[in-house]
Amino acid sequence: MAAVEGGVPTRIMVAVNESTIKGYPHASISSMGAFDWTLKKIIRSNTSGFKILLIHVQVPDEDGFDDMDSIFASPEDFKRMKHRDKIRGLHLLEYFVHKCHEIGVACEAWVKKGDPKEVICFEAKRVQPDFIVVGSRGLNPFQKVFVGTVSEFCIKHADCPVIAIKRSTAQTPQDPVDD
Amino acid sequence: MAAVEGGVPTRIMVAVNESTIKGYPHASISSMGAFDWTLKKIIRSNTSGFKILLIHVQVPDEDGFDDMDSIFASPEDFKRMKHRDKIRGLHLLEYFVHKCHEIGVACEAWVKKGDPKEVICFEAKRVQPDFIVVGSRGLNPFQKVFVGTVSEFCIKHADCPVIAIKRSTAQTPQDPVDD
Question: Which end of chain A is more exposed for a tag (fewer CB within 10 A), N or C?
């Protein structure tokens, strides 16, 4: 067993999502942290040794609160709404893909809809990354009961190793549930 | 933010322990797996970009079962026993340090006594690695109640990110509690 020269790159799945505090199309603090950490601590200068698989899971907006000021009068309106969601997801991924290209590390990116924790595990089973990097808000046990955490679920249920990167204290917003 | 060229290497703490099935001084299946995974998937050919911090925590043999066939007749006997424990720990680390030198990746190694999960977290706070890699037997929930798991405790309590590497099914011994 020796360290690998060349060969198949290590495939890292990085789960990214939108911020709940900053407007469209900003990435969340924790997913930016996880992505930056992966570049700085794992990939470093060895850009040809890795491939980043960026996944963004959109939660279907069942409450419709986002659209409270919209009027839906025709099937076209719904089509437009779906189109807008798609654009938001693509904009988010564009940010990360752009960074990958700047640095010269290969990447793939895609959007899925559903419950993020379950979709991440499902997609990990499908594309078989070497490991998953996921951001974590580092909530306390009380907050976790009400909010749930994607990282803990993935650590328990994903088929591959998972590394959760917590936000630093300096980056934690006033309400730690925000991200 | 760009991938790092040169600079301070990424410091990876790898926790290693002795096998419960093979005789002295073999490493456990899960810690060998975690170490090999780190070389193959993270360090790859970028040996100058990383430093491995090898920690081995020896559990004090309070039951004394290991020494049931020994007779302790003098203070010298106890000294010899302690000396033997030390040698066992050093032999284990020697195996990993030798591999690091072969590959050309910098390393440090040390032995501590105590409860592995607590000592690993304490040492991580002290030496501040960028992340910890720890092997995991991948026990089922029922087995965990009786055996306890080092990896889950570290994921919850360590100050830095932790990645647990599960043994593959092919490597799991007949009794999965063995390692």
Answer: N
In whole angstroms, give the CA distance from residue B33 to residue B35: 5
Distance, CA of A30 to CA of A117 (rounded, Å): 15
Chain A CB contacts of B103 under 8 Å are: 2-3
Rounded CA gap, A125 and A5, in Å?
A: 27
What is chain B's mean pLDDT, rounded? 87
pTM of structure? 0.88
How many domains, in total, are found in chain B?
Answer: 1
- What residues in chain A have their Cβ under 8 A from chain B's Cβ atoms? 1-6, 10, 36-37, 39-47, 49, 99, 102-105, 130-131, 155, 161-166
B79 occurs within a structural domain: yes
As given in the structure block, the two tokens for residue B172 are 């799991």
Q: Who wins on pLDDT, A156 or A11? A: A11
**Chain B residues within 8 A of A99 when measuring between CB atoms:** 1
Q: Decide if B108 is inside a domain.
A: yes
Nearby residues of B176 by Cβ (< 8 Å), 6 or more positions away: B137, B138, B139, B140, B143
Residue of B nearest to A166 (CA): B161
Enclosing domain of residue B138:
10-171
Q: What is the mean pLDDT of residues A4-29?
A: 84
